[in-house]
Amino acid sequence: MPSSQVGSRHSSSELKKGRSAESNLCFSQVYIGGAASLSFLQFIRETVVQYTGPSGFTHNAKIDSMLEDASAAAEEVSYNGDHVTFDEKIAFLRLYRLATSGIIDVISTSEATQLLEEMESSATVVHSSRLAVADLILAIGAQCPKADTAAVQKVNLFFTRGQKRAFSGMLEDPNLELVWAFLLMAFYMLGACRRNAGFMYLGVATRAAVALGLHDEDSYASLAPVESEKRYVRPNQAQVHESAIDGTFRLQTWMSLCVLDLLVSSILGRPSATSSLRLKLENGLIAKTTHVHLLASYTITHLMDTVTSELYGQKAVSTDAAEQFLRKLDRWSKELPNVMRTASPNLNSPKEQEHTLGSIQVGCFYYFATMLVTRPFLISTLTARLVRSCQGNPSSDSSTPTACEDPTHAKLASACVDSAAYLIQTCQDARKVDLLLSNMCIMK
Question: Per the record's keyword annotation, is Cell membrane included, yes or no (predicted)?
Answer without folding.
Answer: no
